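**User:** Everyone, produce a chain:

**Assistant:**
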Amino acid sequence: MFFYLSKVFWFLISPGNAFLLVLLLGLVLRSTRFTRTGKWLVRFAVVFALLVTFVPIGSHMFKALEDRFPVPEQLPQRIDGIVVLGGIIDPSMSAIHKSPVIGGAIERITVSAKLARSHPEARIVFSGGSGSISKQHFKEADYVSEIYDSLGIPKSRLILEREARNTWENAKYTVDLVSPKPDETWVLVTSAFHMPRAVGVFRRVGWELIPYPVDFHVEESVSFPKPMDFTAGLGYLSRAGHEWIGLMTYWLTGKISAAFPKPRGPEVR
């Protein structure tokens, strides 16, 4: 139920959808007895569009997520396994074209493959089912072996978890599949902006992994969007907003124990 409710909830509050709904509602109300309310809604939509176009709100939100977990300077000499979270391959498009169709965040695979080549003793777990409400019969994990094989990682080294539909299920199903021992060392690979929530859910199921963030999008110094680039501003705001709302939702529903998980260690404040 959580999966379906989260999809509907995000559809309604996604910045792009919310902007369009407010604008349309405002235009409709302007021709009714609620003219004044309609005008205020249209004005609100215009101000929102201007802010998104000229102020790097989404970029700052994105950078806060990406900066939370640094890339490890050095990994332990022995690694027992690498967990890679999905969100890379479009499974329905891959089924149509009979070949993996990459949707983004390919660094999750390329970097994990590099780590796997450096640590031949490590197992590789790829967790990814389908995040679509209507296309659950297509599974992302069914198409990842071909990509790893092209990067020099044979299928025999892969453990595929193909049922997870969201980050919570990534952790829950993977820990059940692998049953890691307390003395084992595992690395978690996912996009930098997604790492806080990912670390939080794995901690919640009792599994502490070494975070290895990849797929960075924001520069060291956040700059203002290019003039009149509404699309870029809205894109950052939408992706960052999705992740921040996901963090809050997971915290409120008990799927993570901290609203904004942070690295372990006394040096972190």
Observations:
- The radius of gyration is 21 Å.
- The CA atoms of residues 32 and 38 lie 9 Å apart.
